[in-house]
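Q: What would this chain look like folded?
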Amino acid sequence: MPNIAAFRGLRYNLGHVGSLSDVVAPPYDVIGPDLQKSLYQRHPANIIRLILNRAEPGDDSSISRYGRAARFFKNWQQECVLQLDPDPAVYVYHQQFDYAGHSFTRRGFMARLWLERFGTGAVYPHEETHAAAKVDRLRLTNACKANLSQIFGIYPDPTNDAQNLLEDAICGCTPVEATDHLDVVHRLWPVTDVETIAELTLLMGPRPLFVADGHHRYETACDYRDQLAGNGTLDPTHPANFVMTMCVSMNDPGMIVLPTHRLFEGLPFLAASELADRLGGCFDLTPAGEGAAAAGSIWQTIEDDAEQDQIGLYTAKDRMWTLARLNETGRERMSQVAADQSEDWRRLGVSILHRLAIETLLDNRNLPKPNYVHLIDEVVQGLESTDCPLAALVMPATLDHIRAIAEHGERMPAKSTYFYPKLLSGLVINPLE
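A: My prediction, written as structure tokens:
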């Protein structure tokens, strides 16, 4: 069972830095060069200098961006830019945002989560990870000895008992607040009442937790803990036994999952008729429109249908869109080519797209990483501005898919889900010393 604990977080001293909005940042893995530059310019103590320090001229093995991040981190604590909270707390975290013409508030809380390797307890992954990203995050953890960003975990709670307990605790309290570059409003309240935290711990104990985002950071935290254990510097009370985690109920009204569409590279340029020949009778195919701008109406059809087995495919050679729906022949072929996976996994839209359509029928298993985009406007812009031979519109995995597939001990293809909005880095830091 997941074991959570309160902790004394390091937080920005607003009397020193001014606006919290000026010093926070999205997770490192969604920050491109332009946003990195903008965040560097926004404030000299922006968290970007820790989570994604840029390379500088003259860097070598002894002076690197990891070492520079560590020096910033140490100096900011000595200068009281960052201050340690006086009491252990659980941090209630709300995100207010707009999507598709509606306003949402996603509610959760940050706590320390006891680390256990995937497959050994009640903490489950849902996507694959990559070794290079874990090497990068371990170097940063070794340099700074802190969780600079939180894991994002989701848990089942049909009546939202755990979160409602915390909502009662913060009633009437004033939060600290930040607005990010996408106009999402982030609010944070520390809860230090011992009885409330004890009750929360009991409520969370029996529940499984599924990592929604931050798989690389979770596995890095396990590696760091094991590294300390191997050095003989770890005891049961050491903070490195835990990782800072944002916990959100799967039943929270603000919990939504957005699609991740694909713009492929490395494939041959095919016309819609050639694509139909290659898909080999595994899909029922319907011409659906011409030109990049037709993506909006194609996606509306797929989204309204809300079935995992329907995919929108764009062939750049003739600028045509095709709706492809898996048929019985395709289901049988999918069972053959993914016989090592569960039926839940085989029914997933991204699994059908990658395992059956791309890898098997189009015979491409070692493609470059696609350009992943989330909004239809990004699809249209990408098709109009890049030489992309094939694009795919695909339904996201649902929360039920995540739970079912994770409990089978499986992981979804990369970018099966997109949890919006992203959590901010810099609201709270979890020291590991």
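The longest strand covers residues 102-114.
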